[in-house]
Specification:
With 154 residues, the protein is of the alpha/beta class. It folds into two domains: 71 residues, Orthogonal Bundle (Helix Hairpins); 78 residues, Chitinase A, domain 3 (Roll). The chain is built from three helices and seven strands, in the order βααββββαββ. The strands form two sheets. It has a five-stranded mixed beta sheet with strand order 5-4-3-7-6. The two termini are 26 Å apart.
Length: 154
């Protein structure tokens, strides 16, 4: 599976991975050591909680390593711009009922719709890909079909 990441998101994930491999692992190790010192592990809730946390940390490390291994770096404005065609890395302005919205289209780990970042795999992201200024797109939402017009592509 390919993960599309901006340079900023790549750095965030690398930083999280470093933290998990460093201080988070040490903290969990310390918690396990202290819990073992309390004695009987079968009745030791501190030990069980520390083991659960250890599994969570290791699972997230594995997930991040996989994402970083299979990532493709995208640059804002890399697609679109002069060609005017929406692609991963494009910033797209769309209009609906006189209201304008602006979104950057990135990969799934970039998605923060409230901040203007949508995934290429989201319903809106999928219908925008390959389109150009002036095109009208329709998205099926829980509230029904919603139509947007592409007003700008960067």
């Amino acid at each position: 599976m390919t993960y599309f990441l901006t340079e900023e998101r790549l750095n965030e994930l690398k930083s999280e991975l470093d933290s998990l491999k460093g201080e988070d692992r040490l903290e969990v190790s310390d918690r396990l050591k202290k819990a073992k010192e309390l004695g009987d592990l079968s009745e030791n809730s501190e030990y069980a909680e520390a083991k659960d946390e250890q599994r969570r940390v290791e699972r997230r490390i594995d997930e991040l390593e996989q994402i970083l291994k299979e990532s493709v770096i995208i640059k804002k404005g890399e697609k679109g711009g002069e060609s005017g065609v929406v692609g991963i890395g494009s910033t797209v302005e769309i209009a609906r009922d006189g209201k304008n919205m602006k979104f950057f289209i990135g990969g799934r780990s970039e998605a923060k719709p409230e901040d203007g970042f949508i995934s290429n795999e989201s319903p809106l992201g999928r219908v925008l890909l390959g389109r150009k200024v002036g095109d009208s797109v329709t998205v099926n939402t829980p509230a029904g079909k919603t139509e947007y017009v592409i007003t700008r592509v960067e």
